[in-house]
Amino acid sequence: MSRKVDRVIISPSPLLLIHPSRGLIDEKFSVIVQHLPPFIEITLHALIHSDDGDLWEAFGHYVSDATGLVNVDSNASLGGTYDGLEPMGLLWSMRPVPGSRLGLRLRKKEVNTPVVVTISVYRGHMGQGFNEQTALASVVAERWYMAPGVRRLDITEAGVTGTLFLPSGPGPFPALLDLWGGGGGLVEYRSALLASHGFASLALEYMTPRTSGDSTSHVGNEYFEAAFTLLKQHPQVCGDRIAIVGLSFGASVALGMAVYSTVIQPRCLVCVSCSHVQPVKGSLSDVFADISKYVHNIENRVIWRDLLLPIPTDPTKKVDMGKLPCPVLLIVGEDDQNWPATESAEDMKQMMEKAGNSHLLTTLSYPGTGHLIEPPYSPHVRVSNFMMTQTRQKILVLWGGDTAPHSHAQEDSWKKTITFLEEHLYRTTSVTSQSQL
Amino acid sequence: MFPKELLSSTMAAISPLLSVKPTRGLVDEKIQIIVRNLPARFPVTLHSLYLSEDKDYWEAFGHYTSDNRGTVTVSEHASVGGTYEGTEPMGLLWSMQPVPGSRTGLRLRKMNVLTPMVVHISVFSGHVTEGFSKQSPLATVVIERWYLAPGVRRIDIKEDGITGTLFLPSGPGPFPGVLDLWGGGGGLVEYRSALLASHGFVSMALEYFSTEKNRASNLHIKYFEKAFRIVQEHPLVMKDNVALFGLSLGTSITLHMAAYSKAVSPRCCVCVSGSHVQPINSPFKDVSEKFQENGSKIRVDEDGCLIWKDIILPIPTDPGLKVDMGRIKCPVILIVGEDDQSWATVESAEDMTQMMRAAGNEHLLTTFRYPGAGHLIEPPYTPHVRASNFIVQPIRQKVTMLWGGYPKPHASAQEDSWEEILRFLQQHLYPSQDSVPKAKL
């Protein structure tokens, strides 16, 4: 927008302040606009340039008060990508800008750098065309997955591939084995964030086809045992205080390992959006092969949850939860369209009640929440692109969930996850399952 | 340092959870320090460590005892010993001192504002007073303290004979502006301007007392008027909303310009630790020369530190020797440390008030006096020093200058005055809600 020479300027631009301007991904921030005229309509807008080069945005409609102030902590959004009193709505309600490629998901690959968010104030209640207007004010906020002092180490030893994040300080630290889902690859950001909370965390790569040899030769039980052992023996890790955090397929792996492996003895488990249904005897590549053979027949948006239903009664088809030796936190999205998390959780509970170890089970169940329950304030997507690891086929997967409840679930479950891990890995007086064996 | 097995058993006994928030903050933001998972009623020491740009180590520490739940919350619990005492949420930052064995006369200043201060906060077992580097802490967290918010731009200014650094807030503007003037120590000191820009002001740090011998000529009012215009005329600045901000000699210049300049009119003035006493009809370089001339009035304390305070005392009655405060037409905020040993700022403030009262413009003046505070009243939470090395310009004489002040009251003065200064600048550089908008370009 060009400035006319004779334009009359009466006042400076309103003052927009974000605090903290450099925060961790899971920290709340405050957004305050001052020196607006009183009782005017404004739009608060957030913009991110993703690592993949896509633009994501969110916006909320506000009205300044008598003193010309808007404060997201105390003023409700009247519309936009979120509404109501939602201090963090500008982050969690983000979605790709109009005209973007389909099926995007916002994930940070480079954890050494922050997510950079531009927060702007626009005059009036706008719903589109933000890039064609000059904002009244604009500031930049950084959101980090890594706290200062957290160390990132590439791991390629003992046949294990992953990234280890160590908290700052002398250590040694309790540790986590961090397992993602069937999407494969090496996903670091959750481990970086967990290390920022005081846990040594190993993000494990276990589902990436190799270009040579058997494409899933490393997806065997021995691989996870090697990873666990590597952590146990690491000089900066307390070998007797290791837990497993898993999402989706990774959580199922965690359950299986905790019950059947003699090498893997976690202090506790956090299992997000998972099922205990799996062919117990076979290796994990068998599990995966089992699932992929169904995909060929399904077009468009793949809804996978029905593939594992009904929950089998045949014990060889599911992990024997009655033998689970350690506390487990189950996090379930009730609108999970990818895995039958609710049904599985119910069945797991029944199995454990029957076996007498249900005191180890804590379940958090969230209505309106889908499959991808991640650290808070990152945007929810109901559908996204997915590449089948073995066949390299590209599909659109329905994850489920509605943005507002899903985002609240991410915030609540993350807080409780950290508390649960602190309880079992830091507290000296916690009674662990080991003593019950 | 310790075998892993021993550390493991120590971990099994005491594995505290130390959290400091925010982990990356602006220098004037408060931090919350909480230690959890200690045994109940357990003595610990909280310690901070900073390696300065000059490669000196600075540290602070406080002695605490955990409560019945094994928690220490610094904002609620009192330190019972260390470099600070009492309930002091920011004590680990403002009470820092050079570690034992350091060089003398140090002052902590961040000259490169593009990088943060990196501080290590640790918790040690027991009440430790020395030898921190020889022990292993129970836990450590690293935090960053920034003078620059993300998105703030730093621009070198070298035009028309003016040398300075301009800091621009992010966003389309327009913004109010500040010309930022430091004291007789000279050089180009950027951090206060960087911080002001992080609060939404375009701010230029001006170099006017450079260490190069041939630069004495830049101490003429025209130099400062040019610098002020550079800020005013910047496309992102509201030209009628530009303030002058001075410390020490910078205050002398600020008051002179506000009273006598025909070329510039500041919207308001911030005057920290300064005085209106100066020879009016000569260029500014005479001010510092006058200081040398009155050498007989310079006292030396028992440690060999120079006390400059008496140089301008008694406050002259001769109007040719002080700024005519009755001529000032804009709001002025005066920040005064009552233990200032470098300039007689208390006496000056009293005289300024009387002059303005007599002239009928006292309503423009707001004064904040801080008991126990010294001369160097800076943005908050950086450590206070009572004396430090100083090079007297332009003769380049090395001395140790007594600034005055004591750690706790000086830290409180810095915290409170910064808040008042920001509020003052906001009040006068942004329109008030009930003022009639003026149609002015």
Automatic annotation (TrEMBL), chain A:
InterPro entries, per database record: AB_hydrolase_fold, Acyl-CoA_thioEstase_long-chain, BAAT_C, Thio_Ohase/aa_AcTrfase, Thio_Ohase/BAAT_N
Residues annotated as catalytic: S248 (charge relay system), D336 (charge relay system), H371 (charge relay system)
GO terms, molecular function: fatty acyl-CoA hydrolase activity
Spans traversing the lipid bilayer: none
Gene Ontology terms: biological process: acyl-CoA metabolic process; fatty acid metabolic process
SUPFAM superfamilies reported for this sequence: alpha/beta-Hydrolases
PANTHER family: ACYL-COA THIOESTERASE 17-RELATED, ACYL-COENZYME A THIOESTERASE-RELATED
Protein name: Acyl-CoA thioesterase 19
Automatic annotation (TrEMBL), chain B:
Family matches, as Gene3D superfamilies: Acyl-CoA thioester hydrolase/BAAT N-terminal domain, alpha/beta hydrolase
Domain of life: Eukaryota
SUPFAM superfamilies the record matches: alpha/beta-Hydrolases (SSF53474)
Active-site residues, as the UniProt record annotates them: S248 (charge relay system), D340 (charge relay system), H375 (charge relay system)
One function term, GO molecular function aspect: fatty acyl-CoA hydrolase activity
UniProt-listed GO biological process terms: acyl-CoA metabolic process; fatty acid metabolic process
All copies of domain Acyl-CoA thioester hydrolase/bile acid-CoA amino acid N-acetyltransferase, residue ranges: 28-159
UniProt domain BAAT/Acyl-CoA thioester hydrolase C-terminal: residue ranges: 220-430
The family this protein is said to belong to: Belongs to the C/M/P thioester hydrolase family.
Name of this chain's protein: Acyl-CoA thioesterase 16
